[in-house]
Amino acid sequence: MWRIDAISDLARASDDADWVVLTSATVIDVVATAAPRAWPKARFAAVGPQTARRAAALGYRVDVTTAGTGVDLAAALGP
User: Fold this and answer.
1) Cα dist. 9→4, 15, 16, 76, 79 in Å?
2) Strand partners, 20
3) pTM of the model
């Protein structure tokens, strides 16, 4: 079960985030529900093309998409 209030709290506490990492299509659905306008200046990264497609469908611009693992994402984002 997702705690929507926790995502909302996180969005308020970190509204100046540089990156938001989306690890699944479910995560982007939760973010879009809990904090739809959070992180307006952040860049978004998606783990896997399905996650990126879902984010785009909900109006998020995805700056980095990887083949599908967190390891791939870490390598793409660099040090």
Assistant:
1) 9, 10, 13, 28, 28
2) 44
3) 0.83
